[in-house]
UniProtKB/TrEMBL annotation, chain A:
Pfam families: DAO, FAO_M, GCV_T, GCV_T_C
Gene3D superfamilies per record: Aminomethyltransferase beta-barrel domains, D-Amino Acid Oxidase, subunit A, domain 2, FAD/NAD(P)-binding domain, Probable tRNA modification gtpase trme, domain 1
Protein family according to the UniProt entry: Belongs to the GcvT family.
Domain GCVT N-terminal span(s) in chain numbering: 484-768
Protein name stated in the entry: DAO domain-containing protein
Domain FAD dependent oxidoreductase central: 426-481
Source domain of life: Eukaryota
Domain Aminomethyltransferase C-terminal: 786-868
PANTHER family per record: AMINOMETHYLTRANSFERASE, PYRUVATE DEHYDROGENASE PHOSPHATASE REGULATORY SUBUNIT, MITOCHONDRIAL-LIKE
Coiled-coil spans in chain: none
GO cellular component: mitochondrion
Location of the FAD dependent oxidoreductase domain: 58-423
Automatic annotation (TrEMBL), chain B:
PROSITE patterns: PPM_1, PPM_2
Name of this protein: PPM-type phosphatase domain-containing protein
PPM-type phosphatase domain boundaries: 47-441
A cellular component annotation (GO) from this entry: mitochondrion
Record keywords, A-Z: Hydrolase, Metal-binding, Protein phosphatase
Keyword hit for Metal-binding: yes
GO molecular function: [pyruvate dehydrogenase (acetyl-transferring)]-phosphatase activity; metal ion binding
Entries under InterPro entries matching the protein: PP2C, PP2C_BS, PPM-type-like_dom_sf, PPM-type_phosphatase-like_dom
UniProt record similarity statement: Belongs to the PP2C family.
Length: 890, 458
């Protein structure tokens, strides 16, 4: 065998191209390097002193659990030389995969499109493998039992999704019907039972073994009892090798799939430990003998009590009972300096008590079973209930993570493995990963104390379906603006985003000792509590003036001699405008999708101030840094998010209020829309005012240096009394912008949506060269397959009907054609308003196509007719108080 | 038996259900444990409640405790006195020491100038605070003398020094009381007091200032909450051979030739375990003096007595400024500390205050079905929310010291029964006398009365 030089790859030279030229078998000096590897234990961890050539691999995966094996499988299948290392063995008994019950939710359970697609892919993979390797795989389905209204509407929403894929899905709302179908149940106070036919039970050990065989068959290698000791980072902050128990492995790509041990992987950099926004929690289930009831077989569905977060699976030879009651879950203690491993928990009956009781209440015959074996494992959970995937950090290249599956390892592993494999090979993700990307988290999310406080609550929500209004109750009040207490004393109700508490709305209750933190979520049916307050705030912002705290938005300062050149390259709009102008632009990826959207203000010839959505704080900066690196331009980036308090002064009277507090003339000629000025307010200086309100109303966002924020706030509130200014919360902003069809990144659009698809082609300057230009240009030529529209819902009773939450299915002439992304009530339009997209992969979505259909939207399995808008509607003033009303630009 | 029907009837009458019998000996056990418990609730001061409990192993018990308030300085005094070689010394110290301490009130701490006899207000004491008349008169004289000396000593400006001088003065007076009078007569009672010995741990709480003076092997432990969990902070060091500083101190005070003979078999002169104590004049007096006074009473001279005194009553005083995080202070004789670690004691008292039982892990019975498991778990849940068996936290500590903290209530009762049915005296072979005082602090008061203006008064 001829030793072949290791063929590396980088962004410019994708690995797929490299590997296609040479057969993976020949590039893989298997026997010799295994032998070398076997002997090479004299100087572990130090490649230089060994006489043997160190082993080489394209990708080293740490962890032979479901996640690691899945990534390795997808890589190996595509011809990548992959080596999997595990400190224990494939599917080790202590890992999350080792204690996995083998119950897998169907894709329809997942409302989020990304997770839905990932799960679909997992099912496909497992089905194939089960067929080939003959491990236990039973498509027995699942029954979701709902007794509360929230669970009822959630199950109806799952049913709506499920029914699209499989006509066998059934929603049973009659108790005697339920009893006839599932006689072992106690159906008392059940409002509905949803039978979802696509849920699967499989043998996880068999699946892991099958994946391992597949990897080996494709030339990948798995080293058991061989721990990764350190990841070595070399020149250019790139991974160059991995030190393992057996010796050094040369590689340029490392995948951390070590599950709950992920944060124990060490680096050779000053911050020696990996920090990942994931922490393990206990995960307990009871395994006992079979139920005495007759007719129970392998095909008996899995039962889930949605209100009690209890699940049980009965077969003819055993019964598995589990639950996620918050009292029964605890975060694992942090290992102290002397320990190198977690203290693995043991089953605690006292903590399992409520789960057991809840299960027995739904299925009384469980009581007759033996006490059985209480099994306790640990599973990684993240602060926002979505997994962690992608590049570990901008400062370490070639280090990928995949973990934090939040108790849904089985449904996620297959699809996420494939996603990450593609990502590694192509250099960028080929799908929308905004929900799962590791860079959505800030450093604060990796704080162990924060995680210990938050994750048990996340774990308890395993069977809860979380909508956009959901707020956790733990680990709150972390980031607060300087005017937090003033706002609270005005009646603010706060919601958390990225650890930051922002006012959602303002109540009449101004008691400073009240709990001002929102927890839980809106009802899915009928008017929520905040409705009258938001209506009041909305009216103030449309007719008079409202003050909205926008401090959470990400703020960056970029400058340097090459800054104009850089921004012209990354932004699709022309940002080379005079100092003092503000441009709304997208930053596109190579496929034309939005990496982010932002407003860029030129504050000096070589200095710009960028405001991006809250969730983009790290991602936006990372994208810019990447292009600074690639272009070698002289540009610096400062994240100034936490230096400024942002107040949005919104509404027709905002001009007069601003003139009062600044003492300056702010007529449209002096301070037009889309402009930037540095102004004084009262005694305070250095306030950055940008005349963009992010919701289409007249107004200014003031970026106030934190130390003067309280002073400025007080002045504005005082002066605002003359105009009956009102505090408004984030919900009001949301209502304003959805009604005007303003799409937001992270809620509506993502890296998979282009400006052409969301009606923002007019913001793109095709006259210059920028990243993604060609892709966008091609779209304008050939048309698009997907288009964002605004939907106005008719025949909807807001008191009694289910409210849209986003992620509803849109029907065109009775055929599913797209999904909604966000929704709200339009106070001026007088109906529910959604933003959504319409897809047609066969012959595209043209304006004619959109206008020729009749549309319906399915909310909780109830259809409502909808009117479709392709452009922002022109909204009249409700009152005639201000005869000349303001129109947003364009 | 058939020939004796009356006995059969009798047996039937005497027949008690096993469950009820169990209940009955539980009641006896509880009564025995709670026989010497006592508690005081205080208002408008740094202390909210004081609880004390005692269990004898010797007969008569050699542990004494007392608590009093010094009205002239508004300071609270709590003491646990663990006697040895008889009960007389500890009994006398428990009654007499606080008079000396209340005489040693610093000028800056005086809130009310009172004559000596009215300065103390007793809260409780296990001994009789009224002394026999012939001793009382002498005692009053002694305290008066001490006061005079104290007033004239310009050096005594801190509570630490005041406590130390009070301890030393009492010890001197005990020793002097046993000396022959002008007629050459020796008082038998006083000689007994001086010949027996006593350890002492005394807490002095004045507003937010806590001083703990200790001699011997009793100990004081503070329960401090640190973030959300409670930790034990030692406020005393035992004076025994395990304390290297103490060994060092004793060795350096005597000629080098005695290095090996002073401490033999872990004891002072091979006899005495604590290395500081009241009384115990056998280790303090010269050989000649002992021959005159003690030998006629049948008290032998210890071997190796070359350069007395070997023993002192100089207390080690620790100061602690109370904060709202300080929840309670435990004073206990070594009888407790040989059973429980300070951390466990603190956890027990904290759980007691929260009203929970400290539970061990549940393991289902081998044949149990899930219905039974749920019932068991339910019972445990109720037990968790139910009040602990004893109202008094000091008794609660003693119960758990002897009954063990692991295992269920039944287990605990079994072990307690075993331990308690030993007659006093006999029990000494298995355990020592147990005395526990728990001083609960009032965090609200401490929070609202920060005393930054004052120096601690070391």
């Amino acid at each position: 065998m001829v030793p072949v030089k290791h063929l590396g790859y980088d962004v410019k030279m994708p690995i797929c191209r490299v590997l296609r030229s040479v057969s993976p078998r020949t590039t893989w000096p298997l026997a010799s390097s295994v032998r070398a590897y076997g002997v090479d234990t004299t100087e572990p961890g130090d490649g230089k002193k060994t006489t043997k050539t160190p082993m080489k691999a394209d990708v080293v995966v740490c962890g032979a659990g479901l996640a690691g094996l899945s990534v390795a499988h997808h890589l190996a299948k595509k011809g990548v030389r992959v080596a999997v290392f595990d400190k224990d063995c494939v599917n080790n008994a202590h890992s999350a995969s080792g204690t996995c019950m083998g119950l897998m939710a169907a894709p329809s359970f997942f409302a989020d499109r990304t997770m839905h697609d990932i799960t679909t892919e997992s099912v496909k993979l497992y089905e194939q493998l089960a067929h080939k390797y003959r491990f236990m795989y039973s498509k027995c389905g699942r029954v979701y039992m709902a007794s509360s209204d929230l669970a009822l509407w959630n199950s109806r929403r799952i049913f709506a999704r499920s029914h699209l894929i499989n006509q066998d899905a059934e929603l049973v709302d009659d108790q005697s019907d339920m009893l006839a179908r599932w006689p072992m149940l106690d159906v008392e106070n059940l409002q509905a039972a949803l039978f979802s036919p696509d849920d699967v039970v499989l043998d996880t050990a068999g699946l892991c073994a099958a994946l391992a065989s597949e990897i080996r068959a494709n030339g990948g290698r798995i080293f058991e009892k061989n721990a990764v000791k350190k990841v070595l980072i070399g020149d250019g902050n790139k991974v160059f090798a991995v030190a393992t128990d057996g010796g050094l492995v040369e590689t340029r790509t490392f995948v951390n799939a070590a599950g709950i041990w992920s944060s124990m992987i060490k680096l050779n950099t000053p911050m020696a430990q990996t920090r990942i926004a994931m922490h393990p929690c206990t995960y307990t289930y009871l395994m006992t003998n079979a139920l005495p009831n007759s007719g129970i077989s392998d095909m008996t569905p899995v039962f889930v009590d949605m209100d009690k977060s209890t699940i049980f699976r009965a077969t003819d030879y055993q019964t598995i009972i589990s639950g996620f009651h918050q009292n029964g879950i605890s975060a694992l203690n942090l290992p102290n300096n002397l320990q190198s491993d977690w203290n693995m928990p043991t089953g605690d009956w006292d903590k399992f008590y409520l789960n057991l009781k809840n299960a027995m209440k739904r299925c009384p015959s469980i009581g007759q079973l033996d006490a059985g074996e209480l099994i306790c494992g640990a599973e990684g959970y993240t602060p926002d209930m979505f997994p962690v995937l992608g590049e570990y950090s901008d400062s370490v290249r070639g280090f990928y993570v995949i973990n934090g599956f939040n108790g849904k390892g089985l449904p996620y592993a297959g699809g996420m493995g494939s996603l990450l494999a593609d990502w590694i090979i192509e250099g960028t993700p080929n799908r929308d990963v905004s929900k799962v990307e590791s860079t959505r988290f800030l450093d604060l999310h990796t704080n162990p104390q924060y995680l210990v406080e938050r994750v048990p609550e996340v774990a308890s929500k395993t069977f809860e379906i979380v909508h956009h209004s959901h707020q956790c109750q733990t680990a709150r009040n972390l980031r607060m603006s300087p005017i937090y207490h003033q706002l609270r004393n005005k009646g603010a109700v706060f919601g958390e985003i990225m650890g930051y508490e922002r006012p959602l709305w303002f109540t009449n209750d101004v008691d400073p000792t009240r709990n001002s933190l929102l927890t839980g979520q809106d009802p899915l049916c009928g008017k929520p509590d905040w409705f009258p307050y938001v209506a009041r705030e909305y009216e103030a912002c449309r007719e008079r003036v409202g003050i909205i705290d926008m401090t959470s938005f990400a703020k960056l300062e970029v400058g340097g001699s090459g800054v104009v050149q850089l921004l012209q390259k990354v932004c699709s709009a022309n940002v080379d405008k005079p100092v003092g102008s503000t441009v709304y632009t997208g930053m596109q990826n190579e496929r034309g999708g939005y990496v982010t959207d932002c407003t860029i203000s030129r504050i000096a010839d070589d200095k710009f101030f960028i405001v991006a959505p809250t969730v983009q704080q790290l991602r936006c900066a990372n994208w810019l840094r990447r292009w600074i690196r690639e272009t070698g331009l002289n540009v610096y980036i400062n994240d100034v998010t936490s230096m400024y308090t942002a107040l949005n002064i919104v509404g027709p009277s905002s001009r007069y209020l601003m003139q009062d507090v600044t003492g300056q003339n702010l007529t449209p000629t002096e301070f037009p829309a889309f402009a930037y000025r540095e102004i004084d307010i009262g005694m305070a200086t250095g306030i950055r005012a940008i005349s963009v309100t992010h919701c289409g109303e007249l107004g200014w966002v003031l970026y106030i240096p934190n130390e003067v924020a309280q002073n400025v706030y007080d002045r504005i509130v005082d002066a605002g009394q003359e105009y009956s200014a009102l505090h408004a919360g984030y919900y009001t902003l949301r209502h304003l912008r959805i009604e005007k069809f303003y799409v937001y990144w992270g809620q509506d659009i993502s890296s998979n949506v282009t400006p052409v698809e969301c009606g923002r082609t007019f913001r793109v300057d095709f006259g210059k060269d920028f990243i993604g230009r060609d892709a966008l240009f091609a779209q304008t030529e050939t048309g698009v397959n997907k288009r964002f529209v605004q939907l106005l819902i008719d025949k909807h009773d807001r008191e009694r009907d289910p409210w849209p939450q986003g992620r509803e299915i849109i029907f065109r002439d009775g055929i599913p054609c797209g999904w909604t992304t966000s929704a709200t009530y339009g106070f001026t339009l007088g109906c529910q308003v959604c933003i959504g997209y319409i897809e047609n992969h066969e012959f595209g979505v043209s304006p004619v196509h959109i206008n020729s259909g009749s549309y319906e939207i399915d909310i909780g399995n109830k259809r409502f007719p909808a009117r479709v808008n392709m452009h922002s509607p022109s909204l009249p003033m409700v009152s005639s108080e201000h005869p000349i009303h303001y129109r947003p630009t364009q | 038996m058939a020939a004796c029907p009356a006995r059969v009837v009798g047996r039937r009458l005497l027949h008690v259900e096993p469950g009820r019998r169990f209940m009955r000996h539980r009641t006896t056990t509880d009564a025995q444990l709670r026989a010497h418990e006592y508690s005081v609730v205080l208002e408008d001061c740094a202390i909210s409640r004081v609880e004390v409990s005692q269990l004898a192993a010797n007969k008569p018990i050699e542990d004494y405790h007392s608590a009093a308030k010094c009205i002239s300085s508004n300071a609270f005094l709590f003491g646990v006195f663990d006697g040895h070689g008889g009960a007389s010394c500890s009994r006398h110290v428990s009654a007499r020491l606080f008079d000396y301490i209340s005489a040693a009130v610093l000028d800056k701490h005086t809130v009310k100038n009172l004559p000596l006899g009215e300065r103390l207000q007793w809260l409780f004491s296990s001994g009789d605070t009224r002394l026999p008349s012939f001793i009382r008169d002498q005692h009053k004289e002694n305290v008066k003398k001490f006061l005079k000396k104290f007033k004239h000593d310009a050096d005594l400006t801190t509570v630490r020094k005041a406590l130390q001088s009070a301890f030393l003065a009492l010890d001197d007076d005990i020793s002097a009381g046993a000396l022959p009078d002008n007629a050459g007569r020796v008082d038998r009672v006083c000689a007994n007091v001086a010949a027996s010995g006593s350890c002492a741990v005394v807490a002095h709480v004045r507003r937010g200032h806590l001083h703990v003076a200790n001699i011997g092997d009793s100990a004081a432990v503070l329960g401090v909450s640190h973030h959300s969990n409670l930790t034990a902070r030692q406020l005393s060091r035992p004076h025994c051979v395990e304390n290297d500083d103490e060994v060092q101190r004793i060795r350096s005070a005597h000629p080098i030739s005695e290095t090996t003979s002073i401490l033999r078999a872990g004891r002072l002169l091979g006899e005495l375990y604590p290395l500081r104590a009241f009384g115990d004049v056998r280790y303090k007096w010269t050989l000649d003096l002992q021959k005159v006074v003690l030998e006629p009473l049948g008290v032998s001279v210890p071997s190796g007595l070359f350069t007395p005194p070997y023993l002192s009553a100089m207390p080690e005083v620790f100061y602690h400024k109370l904060t709202p995080n300080d929840h309670f202070l435990v004073l206990a004789s070594d009888g407790l500390w040989e059973w429980l670690e300070p951390d466990t004691v603190v956890r027990l008292i904290n759980d007691h205050t929260l009203g929970t039982q400290t539970l061990s892990q549940y393991v289902p019975a081998p044949e149990a079905n899930l219905n039974e498991v749920v019932l068991d778990l339910e019972r445990r849940k109720q037990g968790e929310s139910k009040k602990p068996l004893d109202e008094n936290s000091a008794t609660h500590v003693i119960r758990n010291a002897l009954g063990g903290v692991s295992g269920g209530t039944d287990h605990q009762y079994e072990r307690l029964k075993e331990s308690l049915q030993l007659p006093p005296g006999m029990a000494r072979h298995y355990r020592d006398d147990l005395t526990v005082i728990v001083v609960h602090f009032n965090p609200e008061y401490i929070k609202n009365h920060p005393e930054a203006d004052e120096t601690g008064g070391f």
